[in-house]
Amino acid sequence: MAHPTADDLDDGLEYDLQLSDSEEETFVVEQPEVVKEEKEQPANKKRKQNTKFKETKKLKMEMDIETKKNMSVEESPEVIAEYINSKIRRKNPNLSALELADLYFAKSEIRSNVDFKETRNLDNLSAFITNRFKNMLPTKKGKEDSERKFIAIVSMSAIRACDIHRATRELSGSSLKLINKNKLNVDLKLVKSTRSRVLCCTPGRLAKVLAHEDSELQASEVKIIIVDNSYLDSKKQNIWDIPETFDVLKSLTKQGSKIYLY
């Protein structure tokens, strides 16, 4: 004969099973909080990482801008050369050390202009040229040297080259504007007959004029290169962010040109 179980008993008593306070709290309150914490932790961590990344990127950009501006007043040609060469390394990550060495600029190709105390801007550009290169500018008509010697001011854009031209056209002999918006045959005629010794140009346009078979302008005639280094565009880029800058300037320094950062 089977013994009755507690569930089979009909003893007239009502059984009320209740959780203790601590058990109810654990079941209802504690468990959701644990789940919530597990879900929120990765999101918070990701937000912190994004914030840190943005702050680091902003700081690096600010430092890069300051470096670009300060390079124009750097005293050491060696420091300037290393700055330019570091740009070359970053733009050519797949080249060997030997291949890079052929692209690098030597400190002997760089000249410091730290002795010019004025701000490097358009208003002071003519004064800088007159102060350093007055002997290269024409005086009276018919009194120029038999050997032509040019100063090339290279800028990152045609618009900027136009600004440079306006800032220097009052120099003795004025200045020439060589940009892609001009017809090439017009520029070739200008460099053939001009009295001016100041060329306001972009690296690309200067390269085209020099390379043309009918060009009267020889690389050996460009004695001075003034790099429009202090100017930054809306993206905070400057002349060294233009790929063709390095090739054009290197081809000129191989012919004896000297580089000045303005």
UniProtKB/TrEMBL annotation:
Q: Where is the composition biased (Basic and acidic residues)?
A: 33-43
UniProt region (Disordered), positions on chain: 20-54
Q: What is the lineage of its organism?
A: Eukaryota, Fungi, Dikarya, Ascomycota, Saccharomycotina
GO annotation, cellular component aspect: 90S preribosome; nucleus
Name the source's superkingdom: Eukaryota
Q: What is the protein name given in its UniProt record?
A: Protein CMS1
InterPro entries hit by this protein: Cms1
